[in-house]
Amino acid sequence: MQLRVPPPPVPPATGGRSERRRNARPSAWERTVTTVSRLLAPLAPYARRLAPYARRLRPLYPRPGRDGWRRWIPSWRQWIGAVLSSFGLLSAFLVTAYALTDIPSNLNTYATQQDNVYFWSDGTPMARTGWVQRQAMPLKDIPEDVRWAVLAAENESFYTDPGISVKGLTRALYRTVGKGDTEGGSTITQQYVKNVYLNQNQTISRKFTEAMISLKLDNKMSKDQILEGYLNTSWFGRGSYGIQRAAQAYYGKDVSKLNASQAAMLAGLLKGAGLYDPTLGKANHQRAEERWKWILDRMVKIHRLSPQERATYTTFPEPLKSNPLYNTGAQSDYLVELASSYAKKSAHLTDKQFDLGGYQIYTTFDRKREQALTDAVTKARKQARQKDPDMAKNGHYGAASVATDGRILAVYGGPDHRTQGYNESNSATVPAGSAFLPFVYAAGLEHGVHKTRGGPATPVTPETPYNGDDGVPVTTPEGPYWDRSGKKVAAHNDGGKSYGRITLRQALARSVNTPFMQLGMDTGLENVRQTAEASGLLSDSMGPQVPALALGTSTPSAIRMASGYATFAAGGTHTEPYSVRRVTRNGAPVAFDTPHSRRAVGAQVAQEVDEALTDSFRTAHPATAATRPAVAGKAGTADKDTAAWYAGTADSVSTAVVVYRMDLAKSLQPLPLHGLAGTSADDVPYTLWSAAMGLG
Questions:
Q1: What is the pLDDT of residues 322-347, one digit of tens each?
Q2: Which residues contact 508 (CB under 8 A, 6 or more apart)?
Q3: CA–CA separation, 450 vs 621, rounded Å?
Q4: C-alpha gyration radius of the chain
Q5: Which candidate, 138, 325, 154, places its Cα nearest to that of 237?
Q6: CA distance linking residue 518 with residue 438, whole number of Å
Q7: For residue 59, is it left (φ>0), alpha (ψ between -120 and 50) or beta?
Q8: Could you count the other beta carbons within 10 Å of the beta carbon of residue 67?
Q9: pLDDT tens-place string over residues 9-27
C-alpha cells in the first residue's frame, strides 16, 4: 500500500500583480548568459575536438623534466607564443587607439595666428602688426625650389611616407626611456600636427598622440595641403612664423622672389633658429653655412637641383642684419592706429578676431603726400628747437589732408608714436578760433537771420553788410546780450582793429570777427552748431552754445577741420573721413561698410563759402594765388594766442594744420604760443599747409 505524500504548501503570493510579473522574469545577467549559450552551442562539437590539442599547447611552467634553473627557462614554443601574443596585443592596441583618435576640430590658436598687413593707397606695403609675424601663402605661390629645400632638410620621403617615421619614433622612444630626454625624428606631417593641434611638450604621451593624428591626417588631407600648412605655421626665428614672413624677415623680399640658395638657408633654420641664425654669432654662422651646403647637396642627391645650378651657389647668402618688419616707422604707427580702428569698426570685427591676424588692410594714405607733410613738420620742429628750445619742447603740430570724397590722404600724428601715443592730428584739445568762421558764414547763408523773436527768417547774402568795428556789443531781438556776470558781451577783432560797415564776404576774406559773432546770434547758435556738425565737425568737440561759439570755441581735430573745409569744396556734400578702402583676409574679401555722401549745405551756399575762402587766400598770398587761382584757404587764430591754424583746399584736397603748445605731463590745457607759430611774414601753419598741398 502506497502512501500519498501531499506536496508542501505554496506560500501565499505577496505584492501586486506587477511585482509578481517582474519576479517571474529572468534577470539581465541570466538573459545574457542564455543568449551567449545559444550562440556558442553550435561550436560545442568543435570545441570538444580541439580540447586535447589545446591541453597540449598549454604551457607547463616551471617546465617538468628539467632540473635546477633550467626548469625556469621557457621553451622555444613558449618564446614564440609570447612574441606572437605580444604582437597581437600590440596590434589590437594600436588599431583601437587609431580608431578612437579624432583629429581635433579646434586648431592651436597661436599656431594659426597671423599678422596684419597695411598697404598704401598705391598698393605697396606700409606696415605689419600683430603678436606674431605670419601671413599664410598658398602653396602655388611658393616656388618649388623653396619647397624642396625644406623637404631635403626635413623629410625627403614626405610624398611617399604614411605620415609617420617608425625609425624616428623608435629613436625618440629610446632616448626618452633610456636617457631621460626626447629627440626629433618627426616627419613633416608630425611636425605640422604638433604645430597646429598639440603643444610643444616633449612627452611620450604627446608623441604617441601626434603619431596617431598624423596617420589619420595623412589619410584625410593631400600631401600638398599638409606641406602648405607646415610651411605657413613653422617658426623661423626673428619672431617670424611661416615661410613668407621668414623671407621678409631675413631677406626683405616675398617668398616668390627667393632662389634655391636663400631657400636652403631658411630651411636650415627649421632645425633651430637660435643655433642657425647666422647673424647671432660666429658659431651660429659656421653651423648655418655647413647646413646650407648640406641642404643644397641633398637637393642634388634627390634630383631636385641640377649639379650645374648647385655649382653656381658657392657664396653663402648672407641675410639682413636685423628684421626690417619691426621698423614700421614713426609716422606709420599713427597711420596704423587710425586704420586699424576704422577697419575693426567698418568690418564689424572684435579685437579678438582682429588680433588673430591674417587681414590685409588697404588704406587711403598717399605715400608721397605723407612724406611731404612729415618732412615739412620735421623741419619746422628742428627750427623751433634751434630758435627756442624751451618753447619747442611743448610744441605740437597736428595736420591732416582729406579728399573731398572723404579719403584721409595724410596725417601728422607726432614725432614718435613709441614715446608719444597721443595723435596730434586726431586730438580735439585746442580751439579752432577764426578758422571756424566759414561754418558761421555757411549757417547764415543757409538759414537766414531773425531780427525779431519768432518772426520769419530774413535771407542773407555774401553782400549783406555788418558792423565790423571792434568792441561792438552783441545784440538779441530784445536788446544787448548780457553774460552771467551781468556784463554786456562784445566782440573783438585781432589787434583791436575796426573795419566799419563790411560785407560778410569781405569779413570772411579779411578774418574780421565782430560781424560773425553777431551773425551767429542772428542765425541762431543751434543752426550754427548743426551746420558745423553736418559739415564734418564732431558734436562732442563743439563749444558751449553762447555768443563766443561763433568765434571758434569749438575744438575740432585737424582731421575734422580738413573734412569740414572739404565739404565746401565738394559742393556742400559731406562724406565722413575714412582711412581704409577695403579689407581682405588671406586674400578673401571681408564685408565692409563704406561711407556715403550726404547733403550738408546747399550747393549755392557751398560755392559762396568757397569763393570767400578763395578771396581770403588771394588777399593773404597774392603771388601764389596768381599761379594757382583755384586755391581757397584762411588762417585761424585762437583767443589768448593758444592755437594757430591754416585750413584750405586745392585740387579736391583739403588740408588743415594746427600749431599749439601743451605740457602733457601736467595737463591738457593749451599754453600761449609765444611766437612758436611764427609771424604773419613767416607763418608756420601756412608753411606746413603749402608744403602738404604741393604749393611750397
A1: 776 655 556 888 999 999 999 999 99
A2: 437, 438, 441, 516, 609, 612, 613, 615, 616, 634
A3: 36
A4: 41
A5: 325
A6: 14
A7: beta
A8: 6
A9: 544 544 555 555 555 555 5
